[in-house]
Write a structure and sequence with these properties.
The structure is a homodimer of 388-residue chains. Chain A has 388 residues and is α/β, with parallel strands linked by helices. In chain A, 44% of the residues lie in helices and 15% in strands. Chain A is built from 14 helices and 14 strands.
């Protein structure tokens, strides 16, 4: 055991999984010893969790809780809302837009892709144009956050543009890395389906995913073979707290605990906290002369820094891990080595943020990047000083 | 629940209790469910803990493990090593020197007090002079750290001065808030008794205290009534892992875990880590123009700042608690409101230190103290940059 290992246990600053608060982890531990998932006690916890999810999605319908990763929930949206041959429009601005593309193609949709440059947000006008080119568009699929680039997509504006110009098809949003950090108003914006995952803004380990359909969307289920992700079947049982298949029961207990905590300050307050941290992280970037990769449309869930030319991005991420026990994320595919992704998503305090920035500065310094140690942290602190 | 409470759980920056690492707490939890303290399994754990204590005290004798607070261990030293009417010299440089005075007086010693100004260390020559004034001095009692002022006493120098000038009496050191942070070489320095407590450098909750006697000191036990703190009785049993009275068994399991962790980097490495953090804290003080109360002899276990004249020290400590969930300690008695005590003792990382300093800056800023937010943290980071 080294000095580092002795004093600094591993910490997560990657865009999922995010840190799990002790009480949230403990709720799962306590439950694990004695919970039968076909019992009134469990149903009650499950229903309470579903109830508390509503304000985070901004809907009066109960979001469904699935035992799957976020990708499973994306698939659930596709298999329940599209049929083979359906025309769909996919916004592809990175790895997760690509996932919508792969999924809809795997399920034999006719896919029109709007390719957006990495680091940029989609323009609502471009989505409208794609939908107008393809009059029978059944669904538009996009991300709320493109996690691979740290871009926040203008979901509300896209929905408004489409609806105001008469688009009657579905809008399906992957909000996996966004929910909690950004406000979602599913009903108000008329977004038919929203997908999320436990290991992001919820402060849970991976294992649960959520799909939320509006009242209107429930009336538009498609016909195609489906079984594990048959949402109509889930909806009936979950109204009573019974999932169709075995639920990830300890995680449901943890979820209830996390949601009670979020509820104490409200979905708006939770998002406002993320906005404060994100502003501070951006202030640090400026002070450190680090370019924000998602320059014009940065997410409040994570801040993505372009790696300076003289620095090896992969070594930097490795150093953060080995030297300080901190898991940052690098870039994927063609962004490998070019960006560092620093998440401040879920149960992250201003002090966690400061620690992450301090570690980033130490690591950059050790990699030879010229900086005045502490200047990024100081800028973040000055940004945070005016916040509650 | 407020935003603060949601994101920033309470944290300890007071000079004891100190943060308890998760694995250390867990060792106590795991033990708690099934441990009988009169069993071979328990004796083995107890003996291992006693063995691992030796390098921290710098002795070949097994330190004794008591179920008491540190004050209990101080009393144990007094009742086992002094008799009524014995002449003793007490170094009083603060609240804990005063405790030696009260204890030895309660036990009817003839007490000569060396009064040292708050914030100053005792001079070895002054101790020698006191001992020479009182030729039959049975014991000299002092602190290794005066926790109330943040002063590190020159124990090695005091012992060397006394021994080199022919002092044959006892030297008894309260190292409660020092052990772990500062190297102790009990055998080499010929310090007869050293006292310590679990909730300081050991990263444990309160409840255990330690008394270590050298071989020579074991031959000089005094005669007076004693029972709970009868060290000879403890010594016999503890050689086999059996404490005379019911041991605080879960804490002993936690102790073993903490000591195994410290052992992985060694007592010297553990102290070196404290020295790094203390240097960084002092660098921050300088950048923030905060006076070090223990100017010339600051401890590596805690840094004590004089509260600037325009700031209300009690409000400052309260603000750190209410606003950031951080427990700093204020001054006691006549130092009330005049100092802030910031401990970096035990299992404290560079990032913990940065968090504490950041919080102190935020709180000072909110109390109207003029500072450039982040400048203290930056100075600390620059100090830490060159450390492993």
């Amino acid at each position: 055991m080294t000095q580092r290992e002795l004093f600094t246990p591993d910490r997560l600053f990657c865009p999922g999984p995010t840190p799990v608060p002790r009480a949230v982890a403990q709720a799962g531990v306590d439950a694990g010893s004695s919970i039968y998932h076909r019992s009134d006690e469990f149903y009650k916890v499950f229903r309470r969790a579903a109830e508390l999810l509503k304000p985070l999605f901004g809907t009066t319908e109960s979001p469904l809780i699935l035992a799957s990763s976020g990708t499973g929930a994306m698939e659930a949206a596709v298999v329940n809302l599209t049929a083979p041959g359906d025309a769909v429009v996919v916004v592809k601005a990175g790895k997760f837009g690509e996932r919508w593309e792969k999924l809809t193609k795997a399920y034999e949709c006719k896919v029109e892709v709007i390719a957006v440059a990495a680091g940029k947000a989609v323009s609502p006008a471009d989505v409208l144009a794609a939908v107008e080119r393809q009059k029978d568009t059944r669904a538009v699929l996009l991300q709320a956050n493109e996690t691979s680039t740290g871009v926040a997509m203008p979901v509300a504006l896209v929905a408004r543009e489409l609806r105001s110009k008469g688009y009657k098809g579905l809008i399906i949003v992957d909000a996996i890395s966004s929910l909690g950090a950004h406000v979602m108003r599913q009903d108000e914006w008329d977004v038919d389906a929203v997908v999320a995952g436990s290991q992001k803004g919820f402060g849970l380990p991976p294992g649960l995913a959520f799909v939320s359909l509006t009242k209107k969307a429930w009336g538009q289920l498609s016909r195609r073979p489906r079984f594990y992700f048959d949402l109509e079947r889930e909806r009936k049982g979950q109204a009573e707290g019974r999932s169709a298949w075995t639920p990830a029961s300890t995680l449901v207990f943890s979820l209830r605990e996390a949601l009670e905590q979020i509820d104490a300050i409200g979905a708006e307050g939770f998002a406002a906290h993320h906005a404060q941290l994100a502003r501070a992280a951006r202030a640090a970037a400026k002070a450190l002369k680090l370019e924000l990769f998602a320059g014009a449309a940065p997410s409040d869930a994570l801040t993505v820094f372009s790696v300076p030319a003289a620095v090896d991005g992969q070594k930097l991420v490795k150093r953060l891990r080995q030297r300080f026990g901190m898991f940052f994320a690098g870039g994927q595919d063609e962004l490998k080595g070019k960006i560092v992704r620093f998440a401040h998503l879920g149960f992250v305090s201003r002090f966690d943020l400061i620690d992450g920035l301090a570690a980033l500065e130490f690591a950059l310094h050790e990699e030879g990047y010229p900086l005045s140690l502490g200047s990024g942290v100081a800028a973040a602190m000055q940004s945070l000083a005016s916040t509650p």
